[in-house]
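Researcher: Next sequence.
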Amino acid sequence: MTKDLDELYTYLLEKFPNGAPEFTSLTLDELDLHSRKNADYAKNGHPLGNFMRRAELYSHYPGLDLSDPQVVALVDMMKQLDAALWMTCQGYDGEVEDIDTRLRDVHVYAKIARVLGIYKRESERERKTTMVGKAEAPEPGTEDGLIGRIPLIRGVAKRFAHVE
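Model: Next structure:
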């Protein structure tokens, strides 16, 4: 810690003597992290601008089901894309994570969303099989047709059959 932070830490311990000193230390660490990350998400804008921008965007999708894991992955992806766009429009590359790191996260979240979609379709196919007695055959060459030929993905999808 710097001299100023040491003095602040000492002041806080004196002001709030009944708490664990580690709590105060963790709080100062969180303040530092919040400030550094906020420079990435909201530099030159409102301190909570990233939440405001994304809330405005999501308001255009009133039917989003936030209990759907695929939607959660897409929302998380948008958080990273928003940060990359904000850094780009503000002309800086980020203090904690740079634009490239954010865009790599976008790729990862997109793939996670696709995998969750695979699980969802597989689960739906299995439900139809249970209800009707046999599954509808997927079109040859479609993504679903490929999935049916990959036992590993099918096995993983079965473990996530609760995904609606």
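Model: Confidence is low (pLDDT under 50) at residues 145-152. The chain has two domains: 1-42, 46-159.
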